Amino acid sequence: MSNPKTILHELLGEHQYPESEARYNVTPGQTSAVVIVGEDDSRCLTNMQWGLVPSWLKKPTTDHRMINARVETVGEKPAFRESVAHRRCLVPADGFYEWRKSAGGNQPYLIRLNKGAPFGFAGLWDRWRGSDGHVLKTFTILTTVANALVEPIHKRMPVILDRQQRDAWLLPWAGPEGIRQFCDPFPALAMETIPVSTYVNNPAHDSVKCVEAVPLSGRQTLF
DNA sequence: CCAGACGTTGTT
DNA sequence: GTCTGG
DNA sequence: CCAGACGTTGTT
DNA sequence: GTCTGG
Question: I need a labelling partner for A7 at 20 to 30 A (CA). Which of A132, A147, A169, A191 fits?
Fold first, then answer.
């Protein structure tokens, strides 16, 4: 999404980052850039597909891909156990979309930090190895209860981490109690919701879904 | 022991 | 791979 | 999540 | 209605 350099500088801290051709649109099944902790304990950027495929799956079929994991229970789920202990990641973004149901049609909203400040979603990743040796890297985004701002639109929202939490999220597993600190939704006062055009409803537009692509006037307008 | 699950979102 | 249910 | 497909024969 | 693809 917008201003990827700023996002990456924030999320990678003092570490270097590559001028990669990474995508910054996070779309199910598509590749995007995530921040992980490398072998040498430093942060690095890696491209992965959104939709976690656990290493034990026989075949990485699309219907088993998990795009979200509930933070309240992630420590107990067999599918996420290994990843939550050893493979956490940050997903750079500057907003996300939710749809408010209504009789006249679903109204999409852009939801972001005030002024569109970049942030990181809490994520998990995994490696799936094919019999031919090729490796598929995938990730999932954690969700929690919606805060007071988002709740009228959608009951759940992604786990957004502030600067302090980002560092904590990338630390090694400290038992299931260590997960609780990430269960609270990001503060409503630090966020804004903006009604946007139904242009974003069309998956064909995923590659151009970004702040600049959407009218921010607050009125539902078709392009 | 073996077989089968292992997940989330939303339900105009 | 690892856990649960039968 | 939403949009769009949803099928078979036979294969220069 | 239900599944797949984005």
Answer: A147
> Using the CA of A65, which nucleotide's C1' is the nearest one?
B7
Average pLDDT over residues A219-223: 30
Q: Kindly determine whether the C-beta of residue A203 is less than 7 Å away from any atom of nucleic acid strand E.
A: yes
- Of A38-47, A143-152, A162-171, where does mean pLDDT reach its minimum? A38-47
Q: What's the CA A85/C1' B10 distance, rounded, in angstroms?
A: 29
Q: Which nucleotide is nearest to A156 (CA to C1')?
A: B9
pTM here is 0.87
Handedness of CA A11, A14, A15, A16 (dihedral sign): positive
Question: What is d(CA A11, CA A27) in angstroms, rounded to the nearest whole number?
Answer: 20
Question: To the nearest whole number, what is the mean pLDDT of chain A?
Answer: 81
With cut-offs at 50, 70 and 90, classify the pLDDT of residue A146.
Answer: very high
pLDDT, tens digit, 9 for 90 and up, residues A41-100? 888 888 888 899 888 888 777 777 888 999 998 988 888 888 998 899 999 888 899 999
Residues 43-62 of A with CB under 7 A from strand C: 54-56
A20 touches strand C (CB under 7 A): no
Cβ-contact A142, A122 below 8 angstroms: yes
Domain locations in chain A? Answer: 4-95+118-146+155-187
Binding residues for strand D (Cβ < 7 Å):
A 28, 99, 101, 106, 198, 201-204
Radius of gyration of chain A (CA): 17
Residue recorded with tokens 């996070």: A26
